[in-house]
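Researcher: Last one for today. Full complex below.
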Amino acid sequence: MVPGRGALRLMAALLWSVPLPCLAMETPQVLTRQTSLEYSVKANYLVRFAAFADWPPRAFASNQSPVVICVAGRDPFRGALDRAVQAQTAHGRPLAVRRPGTREAAAGCHILYVGQGGGGLVPEGQRATLLVTDSAAPPAERGMIHFAISENRVRFHIDLQQASRAGLSISSRLLNLALSVRGG
Amino acid sequence: MPWLARLRYSRFPIVALVSLLVLLVAGVTIAVLNERSLKEQTAREAGAQADLLASAVSGALAFDDAEAAQDYVDAVQVNPSVLTAAVYDENGRLLASFIRDGETIFHEAAPDDRATLFDNGRLLVARPVEEAGQRLGVVHLKLLETPRAQRFGRYAGLLVVLALAALVVLVLAVAQGALRRANRQLADRAAELVRANSLLQQQMLEREKAEEALRQSQKMEAIGRLTGGIAHDFNNLLMVASSGIDLLDRTDDPKRRRALSAGVRQAVERGAALTRQLLAFARRSPLRAEVLDLRGHIEGLRFLLERSLREDIEVVLDLPEDLWRIEADRGELELALLNLAVNARDAMPQGGRLSVVGRNQPGEGGGPDRVFLRITDTGVGMSEAVASRVFEPFFTTKEVGRGTGLGLSQVYGFVRSSGGDVSVDSREGAGTTFTLCLPPTEKAPPEPEAARPAPVRGPGARASSGRLLLVEDDDAVAAGVGHMLGDLGYSHVRVANAAEALAVLEKDPGFDLVFSDMVMPGEMDGLGLAQEVRRRLPETPVLLTTGFSEAASAATGEAFRLLPKPYGIESLSEALNATLSEGAP
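Model: Here's the assembly. Have a good evening.
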């Protein structure tokens, strides 16, 4: 068995058996655990996005090129993302995780998670990068997919307009699950 | 294989059995193939449905959206044959499901991602949920296989056709078996028929013989009955003759002698007529239809009838002149009338009257003409029960030894074989009437025998001369004939039998004529002698004489002249003259 699976199963079990309590009411330890749970779900989701989005062929250097998932700014996943991508593929490509330090480096990303302080790394112009922002991001800086917590669950909003401008297509099955879809 | 041999000899045709087997195998094969393809199709459809569900729930699985997954699962239950649907995530955890009553699901996914299982009328399909190569989970669908009733319905048509075909084959087989059996029975019956036919032929032959014998015996029986009357009659005649001869010896008065001799001759002639009639009646002859003049014939029978009855019975014949002729056997008609007469006699123990009435009955309304003969007696009559049975053979009311019961059955047989009918009308104490109804004939009666020229009577018999050889075994007859011959002017030598005659002829062949009796003792009879004489001495004529009708017909068959006994001197003279004149030229 893959090493990451055990943790993932535990996480999922926790997630489903115990609904996430209101974050503000929790003690710091509990809060930490819940936060780590939330991010491990989000890390998982990032991996899944690779399967439900489609990139134009020019976004990849070759057929074998991996789908690159980048974390810009502070990394909240604490290794959960690295574990999640292990042995996973999307569209027949392997997945890779990078933490670019510069805007240029971020240009090669296919999925870019913008964490705290990562706003400056978002590439300029129309690049085929699926921009994922977290709940803390101000509305103006929201990416194509924006995480939100709804009914103690990790959900997301989708900005289809932005995605299609970037030449990305997002599966309708993903759209169906979104809290809101902008520019359908 | 013994069962095969047994089957071959059984009545059930092998072809039918093979047809039945082929039908069965074909039916089963079709059903199995159908069932298999149906299963495959069901599995394919279920797989497609599961694939559809898997692709639909991929998003919900990927992002843990149980509600969305449930929506998709609920959509599946629109299909009534889906019993359960379950969506498990990649860790085998149940995310969404729906279960119909009485069904169960796995709470953890089976290790197989992709599977199709048939189990007890259920079809389990598992399909992996994948998106762009990421394995997201697995969906399970449990479907009801096509319901039995529906499946049975699908095969019902086939079954009906199979059953009909089997029935047809069975019916054909049974029919063929029955036919074969019937053929065999038919063949048996045909063989039986052949056997029966040959048996029948044999019996018919025997019966013909028996009937012939019976007819003869009936005749003899009738003659036996006649005997009493005849004996009485003969005694009277003999009485007349003997008294006449006695008186002749006692008188010399020529007038009286003439009267006496005339009386004696008359008695003798009556006796001769009587014996002639008896012989004619008793003669053996096959049934031979001839045209008969009823009136003349029955009138001729009157004498015989009167003899067969008693003197206290009066015979009345009422036969019109123009009574139509019929075609029948003479002897049988006589026998029938005699039987009826005897029957009437027995019915009239106190005497009475027997009437024979003939009438012509022209056919009415296209019916055929008939001649009726009614024989009526004034006797005791019979009851209706007896009257209804009188024509049955061997039915008799007479005491044992008096009657055979064949008399009236002979009457019936005669009338039927002549194409007519007979009925009886009788009341107890009021007499009996038998009515014979016979078809008339248009044919002419046979030429009556040429009337013999009236014999020359009295002393006019011309005197002749010649030497005769007289062959006669009876001395009295020989003496009488010798006197007559001498009287006629012939000389003669008398011998007693054929052998002596031949011996005499050997020594002295110069006789003018051989006059021989026909029935004689010795190895050779008169006919043999005549033939021998004709061979040795063709110039010497032969005259035969006899009292037997059978012998007489044999003589005429051989073309010898015959003088029937008894004969008078005139007849003798005439016959001798004729024979001599024949032999002379």
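DSSP finds six helices and ten strands in chain A. The helical segments of chain A are 3-17, 28-52, 80-85, 103-106, 160-165, 172-177.
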